[in-house]
């Protein structure tokens, strides 16, 4: 074989290797992800914190380019989503049902951008809706409250009075009654505007009132306002139940458990799908069956639970998954 032919074939082989490497690299190229948090911000120790944790995990493990913003109010949402889309971000994620209308509008204007909405439903070819069976988790922690209550009186503290939180409430009540049909359940909401998610002082005031009425376990679905419940529960030596993220660590031995809503998993999985070019629009639901919702048990609260109590709660969980226990759904049975 002549030298020139050998060099030609060798050069062709090298170019093939280089082109293969380029194709492989581009297939896993970093994507740009924009995360729009609501007013509660990444440090609300609840819903937004969980979303932020999922996104930063993707940043560390998948190498994505991540930028997050915190909305000052609902009026700023459209501007924030538009800015990400105009700057050619591959995926824009809105956190919270209040962003649904904005995502619907902006997604229509930028059909080549992928969007996701947490806790909201948007029917569009470039939007993934991440929804949770929160009623299943609320039923489970309602059962937990009834198991641990000594007075037979438990409380529910809602943030903003909206259908989503009514869904928590109705299922929580059913879970309590499943364990103790004679239990008394105290229900209060902080308000009817978005400010209800960020009012710990009001939450503490309501919690103290419920405790004064003999409530010894109180579950909150109130976002950042929940810290007020934890303070009241710690002062009065009763139990509180957290929500969304694992809040057991905030007041160990006071937080009985937390109803986990794995927003972090939903956000991470969505980013991973977009990175792998496997993003699909439509509704994705997370429930007890796939641990999308659950109750939290860790070193901060495990000593509060006997083996028999833990087993009882796990048995109830299995019955819900097997549909042997029908959990009422506010969205279906109004």
UniProtKB/TrEMBL annotation:
Keywords: Cell membrane, Lipoprotein, Membrane, Signal. The keyword Ligase does not apply. One of its GO terms (cellular component) is plasma membrane. The keyword ATP-binding does not apply. SUPFAM superfamilies: Periplasmic binding protein-like I (SSF53822). It is a lipid-anchor. Residues 32-329 form the ABC transporter substrate-binding protein PnrA-like domain. CDD domains: PBP1_PrnA-like (cd06354). Gene3D superfamilies: 3.40.50.2300. Residues 1-29 form the signal peptide. It is found in: Cell membrane. InterPro entries: BMP_lipoprotein, Peripla_BP_I, PnrA-like. Belongs to the BMP lipoprotein family. This is ABC-type transport system substrate-binding protein.
